[in-house]
Amino acid sequence: MYSFGIVLLELFSGKSPTDECFSGGISIRRWMHSALKEKTVEAIDPELVSLILHDDPSEGPNNLQLYCVDAIVGVAISCTSDNPDERIGIRDAVSQLKASRDSLLNHSDRTSAAHANSYLNVSIK
After folding, report:
1. pLDDT digits (tens, 9 = 90+) for 67-111
2. What number of CA atoms fall less than 13 Å from residue 115's CA on the CB side?
3. Are 2 and 77 in contact (CB under 8 A)?
4. Nearest 5°: CA angle at 49, between 104 and 2?
5. Phi, psi of 54, rounded to the nearest 5 degrees
6. 102: left (phi over 0), alpha (psi -120 to 50) or beta
7. Domains of the chain, residue spans
8. If you average pLDDT over residues 22-36, what whole number do you get?
9. Of the candidates 47, 25, 23, 26, which has an alpha carbon nearest to the alpha carbon of residue 35?
10. What pTM value is reported for the model?
């Protein structure tokens, strides 16, 4: 589960765990966890944020896609807990990811859902 969580963190941050910005006890997990607590998009890959907000930061506060990213990063953080006994299992991770996907698709209008589906064209069974 740990590796799965790290891959999610890499995908959504756009950074590698070996990035030079992670030094002095700071890891990709700690950096993303801190950003998640502060509800900041600064840790999210700027290209992804640009796609989500359509280059309009005023869309941010109520953007369902950002809530979805927040939920996915939360799953990643849960998968990478320092204590292996505290990590969520694969079934819980998949369940939470499906719920996030479904929330995004169910609360969007048809145009937004079609647009989101093109980004979320991942089959989780």
Report:
1. 888 899 999 999 999 999 999 999 999 999 999 999 888 876 444
2. 11
3. no
4. 75
5. 55, 40
6. alpha
7. 2-119
8. 88
9. 26
10. 0.76
Tell me which residue has tokens 């930061």: 57
Q: What is the pLDDT of residues 9-22, one digit of tens each?
A: 999 999 999 888 88
pLDDT of residue 77: 94
How far lies 94's CA from each of 38, 67, 85, 91, 114, in Å? 25, 17, 18, 5, 22
Which of 33, 29, 2 shows the shortest CA–CA distance to 17? 29
Q: Which of 40, 110, 26 has its CA nearest to residue 70?
A: 40
In terms of C-beta density within 10 A (0-12 exposed, 13-18 middle, 19 or more buried), how is residue 77 classed? buried
Q: Which CATH topology does 2-119 take?
A: Transferase(Phosphotransferase); domain 1 (1.10.510)
Helical H segments across 24-89, by residue range: 28-37, 46-53, 64-79
Q: What percentage of the chain has pLDDT greater than the value 90?
A: 40
